[in-house]
From TrEMBL, chain A:
Domain ABC transporter, residue spans: 3-228
Protein name: ABC transporter domain-containing protein
PROSITE patterns: ABC_TRANSPORTER_2 (PS50893)
Domain of life assignment: Bacteria
Automatic annotation (TrEMBL), chain B:
Entry protein name: ABC transporter permease
Domain of life (superkingdom): Bacteria
Keywords: Membrane, Transmembrane, Transmembrane helix
TM ranges: 20-37, 43-62, 83-109, 136-160, 167-189, 201-223
Native species: Lysinibacillus contaminans
UniProtKB/TrEMBL annotation, chain C:
InterPro entries, A to Z: Tscrpt_reg_HTH_GntR, WH-like_DNA-bd_sf, WH_DNA-bd_sf
Cited PROSITE patterns: HTH_GNTR (PS50949)
SMART domains documented for this protein: HTH_GNTR
Source organism of this protein record: Lysinibacillus contaminans
Domain HTH gntR-type span(s) in chain numbering: 9-77
Pfam families linked to this entry: GntR (PF00392)
UniProt keyword annotations, A-Z: DNA-binding, Transcription, Transcription regulation
CDD domains: WHTH_GntR (cd07377)
Source species, domain of life: Bacteria
SUPFAM superfamilies reported for this sequence: Winged helix' DNA-binding domain
Name this protein carries in UniProt: GntR family transcriptional regulator
């Protein structure tokens, strides 16, 4: 499965949600689709699932535009933050409905997962708690066996144990029958070790796309006295810079280049920290 | 085929409860009226209506169906054309079912009123305009077309609100309200009523069907590229 | 969790080091079976492909060997290979930072040698 975004832009009446996004991802793989609130993640995922069309450009799966293309979309299972089910239907009915639309639906697995998440099949969707609806979404995602499975904030309202179950399932499924999983989440610390590839959206643009293995070398924090750090970071793309007690910390992209300087320490930056730095950058930018 | 089955399953399950509640209330009212009529019919005569509440119920259901089901089906991977097609087929089935229930209820009431010798019970139904003997198949046909028309009109209203938002939707209603006023000003109503009163039941039914089909085509066009998120 | 991984190094490298440490410490003896990639993935909640990458590096080095359909085992010469490799990196990873810190604290070479003997 290959997902291609070609010059994708999306604008609403009052704002531009996505601006000229270009990338290619190929699965099976677990991909982290990250960015802070309003970065355009959900907009992109909605378009990938064919829910609305791009203002410009196109999103293709295996070379075919996904918009209004049922045979492509049947290979995509999109579990959104909310609104995945009909309120009037029960848990069992919702799962049965799924079985008509996902050609590779695994009914036994769905039943097994109902027990794992302790859902009562006779409960109506509208009577479920937030966490239970999330669990139903997770069950749908895994039991669909869709070649592309998208989880957009799949565990709102789920406790730590429930989330752990989700991660275990994700690992197990990826080992047993690999798919292209796209996971968008705010709980990055928990999930970061699961990603093989990371895409970060920032203010409607694709900020970076990296293999998880390359991450520690690609994004680094340089520490040292301000003079030395300023010297070391010259020519690099700096995301964040801060001085405290005559020590300067600068977070930057190396783009594969070596940082050659003395009297500085180079450390790695976690994904979570990176996103915090990005949001700080945004605030600085907006006050200017 | 599987997808069509799935769509029917979802529509059926989503609207099962509302239908059951509606028909239960309607039947209990009809039953109550019939009961009262058979006791007090000597003093006052009662009129029962079954079909008109059904028209209203169908219209209201259809006027919300798009918001309730379209995002869900698009998420399941249907194309918009498929969705409109499945919805249309569901409307056909739903109207046929409604028409049969109405006609059967008429038959049952007539049967019991004859059995219990309740003479002066009147069942108000549009068929009275054409044929006072109220033949079964005519009731079914008339109700089928009228219910389908109600569903499609309700859907059209929903489509307008869905695509144009609240302001656009109410403007549309405003324009619709203008039509009768304009009709009165230009005195279009006299020839219209003349045509209607002269026309046979079949020409009226077929023109209604044609109109339904035209509205359906407009809806299909309007939803061809619609977003899963209402305006 | 005590065994949680950090983000200082790529995860596959950390997995590789975990196995290496276990062999050097003697927790894993030659011919002992090593958990499968998927077992590693589940244990550390990491991507199966990442776990596989760490394990495969050890296979390439000859520290562990695969037997089709049975599993992966510690090879007889594992300890020797790892000891040699670790000795190489010992200087850069431990001696150099030691010297650097000593200079910062003003510890003379003589003092440092005394400390080493005491420790």
């Amino acid at each position: 499965m290959i997902i291609e975004a070609r010059n994708v832009s999306k604008s609403y009446t009052h704002k531009q949600a996505l601006e000229n996004i270009n990338f290619t991802i190929e699965g099976p793989k677990i991909i982290g689709f990250l960015g802070h609130n309003g970065a355009g993640k959900t907009t992109f995922l909605n378009m990938l699932a064919g829910l609305f069309s791009a203002t410009e450009g196109e999103i293709c799966v295996n070379g075919e535009n996904v918009f209004n293309a049922p045979h492509v979309l049947s290979e995509i299972c999109f579990v959104a933050e909310s609104g995945n089910f009909q309120d009037e239907m029960t848990v069992a009915q919702s799962l049965k409905a799924n079985s008509f639309f996902y050609p590779k639906w695994d009914e036994d697995f769905a039943k097994e997962l109902l027990q794992v998440f302790a859902l009562n099949p006779k409960d109506k969707v509208k009577s479920l708690s937030k966490g239970m609806v999330s669990a139903l979404g997770i069950i749908t995602g895994f039991a669909s066996h869709a070649a592309i499975t998208i989880f957009d904030e799949p565990y709102i309202g789920l406790d730590a144990a429930g989330r752990n179950t989700f991660y275990d399932l994700l690992i197990e499924q990826q080992a047993e029958n690999p798919r292209l999983f796209l996971l968008s989440t705010h709980l990055i610390d928990e999930a970061s070790a699961l990603f093989e590839e990371i895409l970060i959206l920032h203010e409607g643009k694709l900020l970076l796309q990296k293999d998880a293995d390359e991450w520690p070398q690609h994004v680094v924090a340089v520490k040292g006295s301000p003079n030395h750090v300023e010297q070391a970071i010259e020519g690099f793309e700096v995301i964040y810079k801060q001085s405290f007690m005559h020590e300067m910390t600068a977070v930057l992209f190396t783009n594969g280049k070596e940082i050659e300087a003395e009297n500085i320490t180079i450390g790695s930056v976690s994904l979570q920290d990176m996103l915090v730095y990005l949001s700080k950058k945004k605030k600085v930018g907006s006050t200017r | 085929m599987n997808v069509l089955k799935g769509s029917f399953y979802v529509f059926f399950q989503s609207y099962k409860k509302q239908n059951i509640i509606f028909w239960c209330i309607l039947f209990s009212i009809v039953f109550l009226s019939f009961f009262l009529d058979s006791f007090f019919g000597k003093y006052i005569s009662f009129a029962i209506t079954i079909s008109i509440p059904v028209y209203i119920f169908y219209s209201t259901m259809a006027s919300k169906i798009l918001n309730r089901t379209m995002p869900y089906f698009l998420k399941l991977g249907l194309s918009r054309i498929q969705y409109v097609l499945h919805l249309g087929l569901f409307f056909l089935a739903w109207s046929i079912a409604g028409a049969f229930i109405i006609a059967c209820t008429h038959e049952i009431i007539t049967f019991f009123s004859e059995l219990l010798d309740v003479k002066d019970i009147i069942i108000i139904h549009p068929v009275l305009l054409f044929d006072t003997t109220q033949p079964f198949m005519l009731i079914v046909a008339l109700d089928f077309v009228l219910l389908l028309f109600c569903l499609i009109s309700g859907l059209l209203l929903n489509v307008v609100f869905y695509r144009l938002g609240t302001i656009g939707g109410y403007s549309f209603i405003g324009i619709l309200a203008l039509i009768p006023i304009v009709m009165v000003i230009f005195e279009w109503y006299t020839p219209l009523f003349e045509v209607l009163s002269k026309a046979s039941v079949f020409s009226i039914l077929s023109s209604l069907l044609l109109m339904t089909f035209l509205i359906y085509s407009v809806i299909t066009g309007a939803l061809r590229k619609a977003s899963a998120i209402p305006a | 969790m005590t065994h949680s991984l950090n983000n200082e190094k790529p995860i596959f490298q950390q997995i590789r080091e975990r196995i290496e440490d276990a062999i050097l410490d003697g927790h894993l003896q030659p011919e002992d079976r090593i958990p499968s990639t998927n077992e590693f993935a589940k244990e550390y909640q990491i991507n199966p492909a990442t776990a596989g990458k760490g394990v495969n590096e050890l296979v390439d080095k000859g520290v562990i060997y695969k037997q089709r359909g049975i599993g992966m085992f510690v090879s007889p010469q594992a300890r020797t290979i790892l000891t040699l490799e670790r000795k190489d990196s010992f200087f850069t990873q431990h001696i150099e930072p030691l010297k650097k810190e000593a200079t910062r604290l003003g510890i003379s070479d003589e003092e440092l040698q005394n400390m080493l003997q005491r420790g």
